[in-house]
Amino acid sequence: MIDERVRPLADMIRIRVFEERCAELYGQSKIRGFLHLYIGEEAVAAGIIPQLDADDAILATYREHGHALLRGVQAGRIMAEMYGKAAGCSGGRGGSMHLFDAATRFYGGNAIVGGHLPLATGLALADKLSGRRGRVTACFFGEGAVAEGEFHEAMNLAALWELPVLFCCENNTYAMGTSLATSESQTDLALKASSYQMPAWAIDAMDVEATQRGAAKALATIRGGGGPVFLELRTYRFRAHSMFDPELYRGKDEVEEWKSRDPIEAYGRRLIAEGVITNDGIDELWQAAGDEVDEAVDYAESAAFEPVETLTRHVTGDVTDEVGGNGAVPSSGAVR
Length: 336
Ligand SMILES: Cc1ncc(C[n+]2csc(CCOP(=O)(O)OP(=O)(O)O)c2C)c(N)n1
Ligand SMILES: [Mg+2]
Hints:
Elements: H1 7-27, H2 42-48, E1 57-60, H3 65-71, H4 75-83, E2 106-109, H5 117-129, E3 137-142, H6 149-160, E4 165-171, E5 174-175, E6 178-179, H7 180-183, H8 189-194, E7 200-204, H9 208-223, E8 229-234, H10 252-259, H11 263-273, H12 279-302, H13 319-322
Helix pairs in contact: 1-2, 1-3, 1-12, 2-9, 4-12, 5-6
Thiamine diphosphate (TPP) binds near residues 61, 113, 174 and 176.
């Protein structure tokens, strides 16, 4: 059994190693389409997700590989999804941005900025109306979503109806190339959220233990029937927005400054100083994460693509789905 204090370090390392491998595989065209890396932001997921219960729900953005991993979606099924293979957690239909796993109540992988906030509020409303007390819906979104109408609609109704939602705003300062200060009149997001009459506060989310403490307090409030809570998680992405981003909107000095606060290195140093782990112990965590990812890549490599015959299943307009059909692939025009 892993030590309670070592676990967040192991979790952050798992995410880092998984995503560094994804970047390599993208360079080799094994993974195609969009790819958004969470590198630098690992303390957010590692500080919050392990505190959720199995019947709580999670929703995230397209920058969600780490959230899925820590939720317990098997690394091989995530990697196979990135490869577009049928054994992927979304059947190979979603790719990096649309990881999904109903069994662990991981409801995406949502690519529309702000689009999943009303979904989170709706899931929590269903729990409340059905009398399923104690359940929480955790919704992770970037600070870019604060400029969307859905943010306000979801926050307002969650507060008005006292719904059990944990709003986790991953404030990494940028929405693609747009900084918060150039898009928001009020950049204190906790203050903005508190105008909806819900408890809201900011957390230094480069510090995984500070994130754990903030999440524990928020979850206790929500589970106690106190309605939603908003957390502004101050973090930073070390990599580009996606794989196509020349990063003209920020200076190298700024990136280096944040990298000097790398949540993995900072927490590792703290654990060593406090005698919780040794350097060798940390090396073992990196090794174990590497082994897990090797296995995931092998699984994805050897998995099959979906056969062409079934490609139009579940696609709007597929007549074979609607009427049972004759098993034939629909003629042209059937797939919109
Ligand atoms: C409604 C909508 N508008 C625009 C986009 C294009 N887009 C994709 S990611 C992104 C930036 C979002 O930034 P943020 O919410 O801060 O999340 P981050 O990428 O920083 O994690 C934008 C504008 C989109 N996907 N959806
Ligand atoms: Mg952002």
